[in-house]
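Protein modeling request. Please complete all fields; requests missing the sequence field cannot be processed.
Requester role: graduate student
Desired output: 3D structure, token encoding
Chains: 1
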Amino acid sequence: MRLFWEITKLSLQRQLTYRAATVAGLVTNIFFGLLRAALLIALYGPRDEVAGLSLQDAITYTALSQAMIAYLMIFGWYDLMASVYSGEVATDLLKPLSYFRFWLAKDLGRALVAFGLRGVTIVVLYALVLRITVPTNLWQWVALALSLILAWLVSFAWRFLVNLAAFWTPDARGIGRFAFGIVWVLSGFYMPLRFFPQWFQTFCQATPFPAMLNTSVEIYLGLLDGPELVAALAWQIFWAALLIGASHLVLRAGVRSLVVQGG
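Delivered output (263 residues):
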């Protein structure tokens, strides 16, 4: 366990060195986030509420979804894939820590920096420009904290699983672009899932993607309460466990087929 946290700390320190990239990403996220908010304001028009979301909730949704981009690496993550193609995977597999936990520790350090420097900052800056919803219930904050941890686990397991395609193909980035692209829509990143027809919402809920983003945002907005809240958290736990289990199975098969420099 100590090694896990040491790797996490090193990853965190590494991420903190890229200050210019952090600032650039922050500015970009805020700019496009405000554009999305302006679009929703125009779409709402004179209406006070759409699909159970007030205009203030909808604006807050854009703030939260923008804040979670870097935390969850919504737009894609190819680090593991690159290590396979460079041959670094050979040394990674020899480390005194399982391959999955090694990458989990590295991603945890990255996610913590992204959450603190970009996620929280985006929400605060949004609040200075627009009126956003803020939870007032302590248990809502506790549920949100748990949901965000589970959302990261689901996201990491999905990204890890997608990157394992590199074990079988000389260029798996195309697979990655498709796999990450569907997350943008089915997770509720582009638009709150409640805005879609019921059949599409049902389809989305049958996938792990709402557990990455939509669930946490709806908990923050207070749209989930009581049994619905418990069920949503349980669903996140289910998808995290399922994807982590699948990652281990696929990794085992990938390692058996791995060839590094012909050996």
